[in-house]
Specification:
The protein is an alpha+beta fold and about 220 residues long. The chain has helices at about 5-20, 45-50, 65-70, 75-95, 150-165, 185-200, and strands at about 35-40, 55-60, 60-65, 100, 105-110, 135-140, 140-145, 205-210, 215-220. A hairpin with a 4-residue loop joins β8 and β9.
């Protein structure tokens, strides 16, 4: 559902002020059970972005967005412009031979080193880690990645550190590279994200994280 940008911006600023003042605004939230999480960043939801799939195609190996049909159907021009910018980035990597796009919209990473994206090379001594950690997967809508229970806890801790102002957003690029982490300045965003990862890892199963180009995320337990 489309949300008012001014309302969301005001809400984020208010929550951020409380976060920076040292108050835990999420302390009363029930995070005892894993839940599927959909967060709003700016104006759009996860569903808004996924609904664009009907307008997406791959022609001659490159991503194409049927903006004409989308506009006729009432899709926000701002949303379409953001998706097109993401496609411009993907198509650049395709032309450089880093990615390959198929007709079914699946993307193959041709220039990846999985070990580069595994914190501690995926090794935790004397730790009981459940689930699996995978390298990031590129999609037409953004990136996804699985984190085992240990990596999920570390990811949540890094998010919390950024939210508390104890670390820069660049540290998050280690976990899901190539996203707009550097543009995140909201303590509320990082703190809520951290709580969602923790909630979905409540049973120590690991998590699955979907992150769109608009930084709207979806989290589920493994």
């Amino acid at each position: 559902m489309k949300k008012s940008f001014n309302f969301i911006l005001s809400l984020v600023l208010i929550i951020s002020m409380f976060s920076f003042s040292g108050l835990n605004v999420f302390a009363t939230e029930n995070v005892e059970s894993p839940i599927q999480t959909k967060n709003i960043e700016g104006e759009y939801t996860f569903e808004d972005i996924m609904s664009l799939e009907k307008y997406v195609s791959v022609n001659e190996g490159l991503f194409n967005l049927d903006t004409t049909s989308a506009v006729k159907d009432g899709v926000s021009l701002e949303l379409l412009e953001g998706q097109q910018r993401y496609f411009d980035s993907l198509n650049l990597e395709i032309n450089e031979g880093k990615l390959k796009a198929d007709k079914n919209l699946e993307i193959t990473n041709l220039d990846s080193n999985p070990d580069t994206f595994l914190p501690n090379n995926g090794i935790y001594l004397f730790a009981n880690c459940n689930g699996v950690t995978t390298s990031p997967t590129v999609h037409w809508w953004g990136k996804s990645r699985k984190f085992n229970s240990c990596d999920a806890n570390k990811f949540a801790a890094d998010l919390a550190s950024v939210g508390a102002g104890a670390a820069g957003a660049g540290i998050l690029a280690i976990w899901i590279p190539g996203m707009g982490w550097a543009s995140i300045i909201s303590a509320a965003y990082c703190s809520l994200y951290s709580s969602r990862v923790t909630a979905n890892n409540a049973y120590n199963t690991g998590v699955i994280v979907d992150m769109t180009w608009a930084m709207v995320y979806d989290i589920e337990p493994q």
